[in-house]
Amino acid sequence: MPAAIFQGRITHFEQQFTRHSDLATRYSLLRAITFLAGAVCFVLLLNKDHWMFVPLLFMALVGFIFFVTRYQFHEGKKAFFTQLILINREEIDRLNLHLSGFRTGDEYAQKDHPYQADLDVLGQHSLFQLLNRSALPDAEKMLVQWLSEPAEARTITRRQEAIRELSQKVDWFQHFRAAARVAVNQKSKEAPHTNASHLYHWASKQLMLRQSLWKMASIILVVISLALGACILLQWLPYQVIYISIILNGGLLALVIKKLNHQIAGIDKAHYMVSTYSHMISEMEKQTFTSEELCHLQSQLTTPNSASLAIKKLSNLTLRISARGNMFYMIADFLLILDAFLLLDILKWKKANADHMNEWLEAVHQLECLISTAAFAHANPQYVFPEVTLAKQSLKASDMGHPLVSAAEMVTNDYEISGSGSVDIITGSNMSGKSTFQRTLGINMVLAGAGAPVFASAFTFTPCRIFTSMRTKDNLEEHTSSFYAELKRIAQLLDLTKRGEVVFFLLDEILKGTNSQDRHTGAVALVKKLTKTEAFGLISTHDLSLGQLEETEPKVRNYSFNSSIEGDRIIFDYHLSKGVCRSFNASQLMRNMGIID
Fold this sequence. Notes:
- With about 600 residues, the chain is of the alpha/beta class.
- The protein has three domains: about 1-100; about 180-375, no CATH class; about 385-590, P-loop containing nucleotide triphosphate hydrolases (Rossmann fold, 3-Layer(aba) Sandwich).
- It has helices at about 1-50, 55-95, 125-130, 135-150, 155-165, 170-190, 195-205, 210-235, 240-265, 270-285, 290-300, 305-320, 325-335, 340-355, 355-380, 435-450, 480-500, 515-530, 550, 585-590, and strands at about 385-390, 395-400, 415-420, 425-430, 460, 465-470, 505, 535-540, 555-560, 565, 570, 575-580.
- Helix 6 (about 170-190) packs antiparallel against helix 10 (about 270-285) and helix 9 runs parallel beside helix 14.
- The longest helix is centred in the first third of the chain and has 47 residues, at about 1-50.
- It starts with a helix and ends in a 5-residue tail after the last helix.
């Protein structure tokens, strides 16, 4: 069972955390002891002038540096294993559908999207919360794009192959995620709103500069500074001559500073973000992959230059940029013109790597999306990868369920539809499962279109557009009634069909906002219109007479969900049946709630 596997991993990582925590405590104590010993040696050396304390002071200093380094190493390991523990606890939460603690992705919601709102792609208790394991905001945004626009058949099969491979590398991808999360936590403290777009914009900023001339001038001035400094130390010249160097260097820095500030804007607080990408790219380059998509992503990082080396150099540049606020840097800047060399190194890096920055970072984002989906596949081994069919309109599912419905409440169904203009009319009593069934179809189509596994024992589909009209509501700001909102959605669907696009549609409680006669007349006309398009899908309704269309329209079929009444109890089986609904329960529901006698 996946839950037991995740719990076993938690136990293992907790043991590792405890081990590193104990070692960190030990090295912290040794660090304090060597610091105090060094301080004592220093004081005795000053007061007693005993040179015997010099080697002791040196030994204390070396020991202090060693223990600080070991302490930082084990603190880093503690942070790493903390994230691994959290990752596996989150997997158990997802298995139990305890999703409230995860990011909702609401900031990526698109108004009037064809299906986002109706199929719970984003928001509380959503598909995004179930799938998303991304550490980077830009990868989250890409995952939303995958879930919001079905991919082409070739892309889907490539993603499936990559996800299958990654799902077998659980140790690697969990370690990859943990290290990324540690780095992102550091980045969040430094600059929480910095993202890849800032790096893209920074890389695109160019500066026309005769670099060879500036480099030569900088080197000459540094040589002069060092020569004057040496002469002063050897007492060949008075110390006042250093002012000559400071004035010359200050003049060059005055020319440099504006250009440098322009070049570092947008990256001056991005050290940890760049370090995060540096680590992730390095891990991607080192891993061995076999699937076409993963090998392609890896190749993007190795041609024409090594992305990990380039981003590592950029990380070092951002570290130098961060140091500019340090007092010692400012002093050294006047003597060694550090800003001039920093500007030259930035321009050199951009010339070599700026054109590849977008490709490198996008490869990281794509891998994070694939890892999110692979972790989902690993946690749900009973799910299957859909088979993509070349048929123009086709969907066939066996034992299909809804991934956001708990196992205790789950009822699976088989379903099949194919052919242009096919319309299945779903009738059923209240609360019998019509809407849930449509959402089950829709959300599995979304997963399939993203390349992810679906909740079914078998699933074959045509990659196509998905369109829903299920949760239409009024809008006071736009003076729109719920009925008019539904009409606008239907008009959107028909606009798509006019362009000849293949669309899989799900229309729930069609034309519910008008009277029975108008609803029937409008629904009949709409169904007939849809049978003449490249679209195919389902329409649910309480209008049983709409089922008569099956007799005159060869592309129309009837399905239903039924219930039974036993005493005061209403029994639902939630199984899809052929034909028009045969049971009704509205009156019984009203009696149960005390509305009528």
